[in-house]
Amino acid sequence: MSEGRDSAFGVETTRFARAVADAPRALPAGFARAAALRGEGPDLALVLWRPTAAVSVGRDQAIVREVRRAWCREHGVPVLRRPTGGGALWHDPDQWAFCLAADRARLGADPAERLATGGALLVAALAGLGVEAVFVPPNDVQIAGGAKIASVFLVETGEEALLFATLLVRFDVAAALSALLVPTEKLTRTGLEHARERVATLSDRLDPVPDDATIVAALTAAVATRFVARPVENEAPFPDVETPEPADPWEDAAADVLETFERTARATLRLRLTRAADDTVTSAAFATDAAHTPADLAARLATGLVGVPLAELAVATARLTRPDDRFVGFGPPDLVRLAARAAEKARLAGALGLDAAAATGVMLAGPGGDALDALDRAGVVLVPYCAKPAWCALRPTPDCIDCGHCAVGDAYRLAHERGLEVTTILNFEHLGETLAEMKARGVTAYVGMCCSDFFLKRHVAFREAGMDGVLMDIVGATCYDLKEEHLAYAGTFKAAAALDLDTLEKVMARIPGPTSEPGAGEG
Ligand code: SF4
Ligand code: SF4
């Protein structure tokens, strides 16, 4: 290792150790190698390897919400939980994995800055290979046009930080989409062609494709240049690491579980609760794809929310954040809103007689915090076209004649009985136009139906509409299940989902009729 000597890198004071695997190694072996290398005392420990096939989820993710576990089991693809934050990833030997361990202060002033350092290293390495790219916070490295070619993630333990990144040489889109549930913007408009447009690789940017030695040299040079340090090779072997399948408390489909999610511009937050008869929390689980430190937030919420009355959930959540918490892509107000939404869904369920599964399927949108008040004010009902049978001639239209052949007719009838407008949303643009038109003429609240994946993915449209929405999840195969949301976007999804008529009737019964006082619905 170098120590204060003159070189082409200037006066080196940074001890920089590097280990490179000459054959594909499992993801955990690389993390273990990085920990061992850093333990030998260098200021920077860089480990590079090509990972064997696997799916990894971020430290705080709900595996069942991110991974098609049955497909992974069937194809012998291990599912791993990374120590870092971030989202779910597909790995195979056609990508390079990168771990850089160092004092966290060396990598930046806070987690967002440290992730940006990781992004800058990837951008520099790509520039060295001849690919122009930019870091797009919090995790992506993209080429012009927005296709992702690399990702970077972070974990911190005390003063120690580890950056983990993957760089795509090639990408098996079909395998990745088979292994991952991809409802968020990571691979917008899934479907093979659409996903391919969203992912870039060295092999489609460079001809000839750089060999392993060239890629390793570029990644190493990026680190060496930034930290003015010369790498010293460490030849110790990568360890074999036992990797039992990670536990996933979210996979337990207990009947009384209430789930809620919130989406910020750059993070998905999930809360899973079970309750006692007196409406106190008996168990809590928090999940996110976003980075934050210290890493014990999920554990803090899991223990700290137990015993809390639902009515006090938001306050209790606020109290469980700490002054030293640092968040990337979300913050304490988002956590508090998540808890408040969960409590409000439970209150709504109690008022309407919904069981926990139906309450989980309710999605609340908009600035207000009182779902019952939103139902009192609701002026419009929005129905997704996919709930109409594929053979219905009115499927591609905003209308329904209540012919008696599907629950959409019931939705139209229930809406008309209460003097509400009702329309079928035909595609994403139509949703935006309809919400804008409703807002312009003074509608303050609405009832809607859509799949939860659509709600999660299109959260911006619902939030920016500025009206309070009580939405219900649809049932049956959605186009996300069928990997056809690009067809949904265009309004040409062929399969038929269905409305949850029982929940719809209970929600609609609460809405006052044309002559009733607010709050005087039948619920
Ligand atoms: S009830 Fe409406 S949507 Fe359903 S089949 Fe009849 S016309 Fe079509
Ligand atoms: S995304 Fe697909 S399944 Fe979901 S509401 Fe839209 S059309 Fe229906």
Ranges where pLDDT stays below 50 over 5 or more residues in a row are 1-7, 183-190
Distance between the termini: 73 Å
Q: Determine the CATH topology of the largest domain.
A: BirA Bifunctional Protein, domain 2
- Main sheet: which strands, in order across? 9-10-11-12-8-4-3-13
Give the rounded overall mean pLDDT: 90
* Number of separate structural domains: 3
CATH 2nd-level architecture of the largest domain:
2-Layer Sandwich
Task: Report what the structure shows.
- The protein is an alpha/beta fold and 523 residues long.
- Helices cover 35% and strands 22% of the residues.
- The strands form six sheets. An eight-stranded mixed beta sheet has the order 9-10-11-12-8-4-3-13, sandwiched between helices.
- It is globular, with a radius of gyration of 25 Å.
- The model is unreliable at 1-7 and 183-190 (pLDDT under 50).
- The chain binds iron/sulfur cluster (2 copies).
- The site of one iron/sulfur cluster (SF4) has 12 residues, from helix 19.
- One iron/sulfur cluster binds at residues 388-389, 392, 394, 400-403, 405-406, 408-409.
